[in-house]
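in:
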């Protein structure tokens, strides 16, 4: 057990540390906001040694989806893994298949089951990326399953029995916060059923170069369009096939050209442009 792992166990014996409570508070305050993933992953990586964190969704009407990814591995590498999982490999994941099992213990922490993955799956999702262990939880909300995956890379080592005991308590709490975040996003109109209508309206503004959106380049327009229909930076990265850092650069440039600083201001500009079209 390395030094960082020992510190976790020592903190358990002393009770829940103050910084943990502060971290969970920051996560809770960010629910429903675009920066939700940042304090969540900071907490996971800093205090639980989670190096790679991915959240997928599943429903009967929309199939498998990707909510977000946060990782210490390069953004393009993490994005490619998530894309591969949604398009093909989720069907070969024993835990993901349990979403169809009504008897599954939804909020329990599940071990990696690496021995139950086929060799190609283990090589693609573990060996090639130095991922050495995984815990996962499935949470049911409305007609969706939220599937949270917590990984460690080689230098952090596998989960110990003591750590797993701790995670049995803390990870369901964090997963519940993630589920609440997802529910708010859906209530805001970012769910699969509403998105096509919203996207068509937004596209009518962006593609027709209605002022002030006529100032934007093609890629800046594509990023703004996806922001307006609720994509996260990771989601935009996956959808456009570009690095998340590039997404942030295009967003910054677009906001500068539009004379705005926030997502809410972008919404306001879009609504004003729609009013011009409808006059």
């Amino acid at each position: 057990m390395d030094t960082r792992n020992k510190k976790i166990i020592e903190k358990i014996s002393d009770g829940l540390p103050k910084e943990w409570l502060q971290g969970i508070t920051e996560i809770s305050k960010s629910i429903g906001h675009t920066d939700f993933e940042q304090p969540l992953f900071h907490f996971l990586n800093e205090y639980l040694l989670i190096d790679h964190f991915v959240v997928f969704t599943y429903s009967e009407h929309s199939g498998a989806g990707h909510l977000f990814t946060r990782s210490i591995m390069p953004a393009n590498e993490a994005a490619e893994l998530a894309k591969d999982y949604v398009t093909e490999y989720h069907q070969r994941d024993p835990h993901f298949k349990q979403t169809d099992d009504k008897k599954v213990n939804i909020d329990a922490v599940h071990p990696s089951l690496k021995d139950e993955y086929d060799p190609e799956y283990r090589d693609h999702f573990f060996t090639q990326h130095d991922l050495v262990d995984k815990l996962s939880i499935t949470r049911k909300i409305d007609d969706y399953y939220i599937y949270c995956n917590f990984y460690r890379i080689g230098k952090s080592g596998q989960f110990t029995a003591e750590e797993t005991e701790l995670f049995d308590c803390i990870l369901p709490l964090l997963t519940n916060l993630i589920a609440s975040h997802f529910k708010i996003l859906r209530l805001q109109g970012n769910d699969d059923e509403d998105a096509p209508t919203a996207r068509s309206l937004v596209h009518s503004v962006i593609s027709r170069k209605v002022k002030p959106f006529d100032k934007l380049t093609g890629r800046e327009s594509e990023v703004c369009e996806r922001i307006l229909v609720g994509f996260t930076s990771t989601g935009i990265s996956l959808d456009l096939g570009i690095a998340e850092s590039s997404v942030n650069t295009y967003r910054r440039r677009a906001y500068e050209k539009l004379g705005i600083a926030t997502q809410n201001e972008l919404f306001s500009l879009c609504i004003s442009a729609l009013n011009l079209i409808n006059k």
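note: The first helix runs from residue 3 to 13.
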